[in-house]
Amino acid sequence: MDLLKSRLLPVIALFASVLFLYFRIPSSKQSFDSDCSLLAHDHFWIVSNRVVTPRGVTPGAVEVKAGRINTVKEGEYNQLLLQNEHVLDYGDAVVMPGLIDVHAHLDEPGREEWEGFSTGTKAAAAGGITTLIDMPLNSFPSTVSEETLKLKIEAAKKKLYVDVGFWGGLVPENAFDTSALDKLLMAGALGLKSFMCPSGINDFPMTNSTHIKEGLKVLAKYKRPLLVHAEVVLESENNIELSSDESDPRSYTTYLKTRPPSWEEAAIRELKDASEETRLGGNAEGAHLHIVHLADSRTSLDLIKEAKSGGSSLTVETCPHYLAFSAEEIPDGDTRFKCAPPIRDEANRQSLWEALLEGHIDMLSSDHSPSIPDLKLFDEGDFLRAWGGISSLQFVLPITWSYGKAYGITLNQLTAWWSERPAKLACQANKGAIRSEMDADFVVWMPDVEFELDENYDIHHKHRNISAYLGKRLSGKVLATFVRGNLVYSEGKHSPAACGALILAKQ
Ligand SMILES: [Zn+2]
């Protein structure tokens, strides 16, 4: 028996090396860089018992060729058809469109000690995110002109493990300068972002509704969106007298009181007016207004519903941290949970879920917004002075799934919130669904596999200890991530080279 083994092994090894060589040869004429993928070929089939297509969850086979989805066979298909093909059979694991995160701060150039294109997109790939749109602030300089967008593009080259696009900034300096905005948009910004309150970043000052209306007028020509941080500082409430036991800066309640829901409400009331210009026949018909990270599920949400039903082109996102956490559970001094607008009470958290399930909240985004740990002031635990921003990029899929299970969420809803609607917001017609002709962007994951997000977990963000999710038990393990047919992440490994594309808007 041993003799047989010793004779057979070299033959098997030779056979395997021939197979390997065979698969190293690109099957299409298009150039294929094998360093970009953990898979050595660009024509293959992905098979699973749970493929999420626009029609539902079905057993299926997806043919990938030169980065695109060539064919999708739904339901029972003839296995014989795949006999001579290269097949990746994922069994009962779910194959879904890759996630599209329209709100992440990668902080490069200028603050790469906070995050960075390489670490951020590695974390995205490990989390099943295949496209990420970077925010124009927290990097330095902020992306508010053609020149600063070019700096971003230069800094991102050869560092991207997933596809990345950029929002430009709408600030007072460019709001009335149509030609500056034209240049920024013509250079490829997918849309603009502005703040209605101080952003915390010196070269990204806040805008008022006049600036916003001007921005919308320019965006109308390009049919691109304006994303707005909706909080205005209400002076009357800014100077709230805090009683002595309410003024402890280590208490989360103190922070919550300094940033009440009325700030969101006041901003959204102004945005509701501004959004009327996006209606048919309005001054900004063709533009779109998108409210980022909604935290208040009460009056603010009612105003959003009114704007939508009145015919405004308006959408809204919320983030996993508003759906996962409530103010009551945030420990004193734990500034990992600080963000703006703040995480509100438990009843508010539950109504955010209801609004999402009922379609009043359109989509989800990470708002991954890290900083160096020093700025979180962990020793002091001072909520008023610590840097705000929640670090979560790698975990948004398991977080949404783990906390959403109690609300009976479905895989198709996950796809709508994380892929289809974000693709539409960022005008990415080739992304967001498993359908022929679309980009071959997938996440393969096992919803029922649980894991501890503890110190042994492989986290790719730059600073692991600033994440508010550390210590949580989550459900949903990402097995593999494909970006335009490249297997960029599989079982803990990333592709050798960073071959994500820069997504720049075309004229
Ligand atoms: Zn943000």
From TrEMBL:
Its EC number is 3.5.2.5. It holds the Pfam family ALN_composite. SUPFAM superfamilies: Composite domain of metallo-dependent hydrolases (SSF51338), Metallo-dependent hydrolases (SSF51556). GO terms for biological process: allantoin catabolic process; purine nucleobase catabolic process. It catalyses: (S)-allantoin + H2O = allantoate + H(+). Residues 39-93 form the Allantoinase composite domain. It comes from the Eukaryota. Catalyzes the conversion of allantoin (5-ureidohydantoin) to allantoate by hydrolytic cleavage of the five-member hydantoin ring. Catalyzes the first step of the ureide allantoin degradation followed by the sequential activity of AAH, UGLYAH and UAH which allows a complete purine breakdown without the intermediate generation of urea. This is allantoinase. It comes from Carex littledalei.
